[in-house]
């Protein structure tokens, strides 16, 4: 007898987890219908519930914060390069 692992798609897992979250049927009923172990469904349900806050969070706000941090870092680099350029001009005698 050969052991084979089943690979389920994310869409399938989400469908099963959502069905378990709804609670219209027991986990055992869902498991027997879909051919999945009840413990696996419980794990998918737990992962779905824990991941919901991240899915529903305001990603635009995070992108804005990341953008501001990037702009700040780039301005700092520009300032550093300008100081270095001025120093090199002064040392080489090319200062205008």
Approximately what portion of the residues adopt beta-strand conformation?
A: under 5%
- Structure annotation, total helices: 4
- Overall spatial form: elongated
Report the structural category.
mainly alpha
Which bin fits the share of residues in helices? over 70%
* SSE pattern: HHHH
Q: If you compute it from the alpha carbons, what radius of gyration comes out, rounded to the nearest whole angstrom? A: 28 Å
Low-confidence stretches: none
Number of separate domains: 2
Main beta-sheet strand count, sense and barrel state: none
**Secondary structure tally: strands:** 0
**Amino-to-carboxy terminus distance:** 85 Å
Mean pLDDT: 89
Keywords:
mainly alpha, elongated, 96 residues, single chain
Descriptive report:
With 96 residues, this protein is mainly alpha-helical. The chain folds into two domains: 1-57; 58-96. It has four helices and no strands. The radius of gyration is 28 Å and the shape is elongated. It starts with 9 loop residues before the first helix and ends with a helix. The mean pLDDT is 89.
Topology (SSEs and partners):
Elements: H1 10-22, H2 27-34, H3 38-56, H4 59-92
Helix pairs in contact: 1-3
Task: Characterize this entry briefly.
This protein has helices at 10-22, 27-34, 38-56, 59-92.
